[in-house]
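Holo model, 3,4-dihydroxyphenylalanine. Inputs:
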Amino acid sequence: MEIEPLKQAALAELRGAADLAALERAKGTWLGPQGKFTAAMKQLGALPREERPAAGKQINQAKAELETALSERRAELELKSALPKEAADFTLPGRRRSLGKLHPLTQVTEDIVRSFRKLGFAVADGPEVEDEYHCFDALNTPVDHPARDTQDTFYLNLAGAEGADEKTLLRTHTSSVQIRVMEKQRPPVRIIVPGRVYRRDNPDATHNPTFQQIEGLYVDRGVTVGDLKGTVEFVFKELLGEEIKIRFRPHYFSYTEPSFEIDFSSALTRKMGKEWLEIAGCGMVHPAVFEKVGYDPEIWTGWAFGFGIERIAMIRYNINDIRLFYENDIRFLRQF
Ligand code: DAH
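Output:
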């Protein structure tokens, strides 16, 4: 039995395999169960006893060499198939990663916050999962007020959870943060609170079950409605242009007295067929609210306001449907 020529032939075929499929075929031909080398091993038994050890050793060495040749060629071929088939053109322009943008509501919020910062307001924050006390009671809201109804508010069923004896809900307005801040801080207070709020509204062009508000609170000695009006006017002019007008109209909120709604007028509202568009609620902080947080209403005065950010963004960008902000359609979002 001539091992050497057999080995040379096998090596030539393995090393010369043009691709991985050819290599696998060569492996089968020589080293597989029906392969020629395997057959040589089987012939060992037919040799005279004294020749067997030497022949066996020779075959094993040859087989090891073939295994090495096989794995070397496999590595070469794998590398070759992983490399690009065509030459790269290094003069082509690079692929630029497209940068995302801030959501229009985030942009408007940041602009509003920037304006208030100029006037010395700090940003405050509070929980979206709120208790009835901070959302309603501490804000002097009577037990039978419609805002507290299960038809209007998302109550949470936290039976068994910690603090479950308190009724918990998704906050209906950012006004709850007024209370949380005043509980922790002595006056004077000058804060704004951007945040998400929730109501049981069916979505339509002007309603969405979740939306964003900005709350403002200013507490000090001798604070007046004139101060409130001047502040609101400054911010809205910065945001929507010098030619806009605002007016205060009497209204009712349980946590302010007197209370107002802020109406807004501009070329755009007139184009929408309305001279005045209501955009915010506000008023002078009610003494009962001060008493709840331990501020002496004989000493401290203050005002507060709250408005919807979507409303402002709709006016600013001339958008006629609030749901567009929440659909995440990239064609809509790219425009801002
Ligand atoms: N919380 C009111 C709302 O969601 C808005 C509001 C009105 C906030 C008067 C205030 C305020 O701080 O004084 O409709």
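The chain has a mean pLDDT of 91. DSSP finds twelve helices and ten strands in the chain.
Archived with the compound record.
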